Amino acid sequence: MTATRSGAAGDAPLSEAPLLSDLMPWSAAPMRLGRSWILAPDPQSLTARWDRLVAAGGAEHEALFEPTRARTPDTAAAALPGRATGTGRFARETGRCPEPLRVAHGPFDEQWLIPDHRLIDAARPELWRVADEHQLFAVEQGYVPAAPGPALLVSALLPDGRAPVGRPGRIRPLYRRPGGTEPNLTPGLTALLSARYGHQVAPDEVLAWCVAVASATPAGPAVPLPAEPERWAAGVGLGRRMIRIQVRGARGGERPRLPGGRRPYVRAAVPARPESITYDAGGEALLLGTGRISPVPAAAWEFRVGGVRVLELWFERRTARPQPGTLEEIRPSGWPRERTSELLELITVLALLGELPSPHDALHAGPTISGAELRGAGVLPVPPSARRPASVFDHHEEGPDGQFALL
Q1: Is-contact 175 135, C-beta < 8 A?
Q2: Most exposed: 4, 65, 146, 186, by fewest CB within 10 Å?
């Protein structure tokens, strides 16, 4: 399948470019949580919400649970892969909250989730099975015509796949099995690229190239493949820098840092309940109510995904007033110090990404590997088996009401 969008002058036409789904064929849909109270910026709120729900009874318990067609207090569910949680009806639950799990909640937002399958409408267990210290997830962003922002992001954390606007894209793990084995690449792709570029192309190179050059189209991200090795090497180098920044020190890397004189600091304390976030361009300062953080490069403030400013979205998710009488009301009474630290790191990530060179000027210009060559080498069409998850049942998984899942 190919995308249909015209490139800028000098670019190779995207109508000839393979889609990301042609290169990384196995994918999963975004998670569907079903209830927002199981996600929070801090883990303490989640354990308090769990305790409040377990202590409630009758109609109050059901109202606090927030039933959906997929999940009610009387729904039994299999344990999530790698998680030792209850599988019986939640209405009978009396135990402690499972240890909250750090997840990627949409672009550049890291939050905590209660990893209990009885509380999640559609958890995508196939992703949980391959989420380990070797895995990276390519997360497609929602398509919004002419909106600025990257078409593809990468997370070392398990992502929920949420997009700020537009229809969410798919989640594509780099590896089909735990332990970083069996890359999620269409058969024959790395052999073709290795022959083209004169060296053994590794799976992480393909992901890096995709991150650097992916362009949004209605059919999904399009990824032109360059014909010459020099452009491939330049794109892979840029993509690896982008990935290192986005994963924030995971996979053995260093956490992102700006040079000494450019690191953001808190100049005036953030108030307990900041009600606005604005940017002082002249002073390079981010203002949260009466709080002030600087220096904040304009590139960080202007960084958008799907046309939505990332810093504003991050702030709104933490300051929106919860609906009265819901478990979401259980949250910190003020602005935690840890939240400011997370904001400083987010500013750093966005600043570093925003200052990278635009890939479209150099990486999209020039000859590309044609669809005819991909078909001639047997890379396309993608075999149906490559689009299905691998069988990774090397251990028992507890099914609903304590029964073992069939292998």
Answers
A1: yes
A2: 146
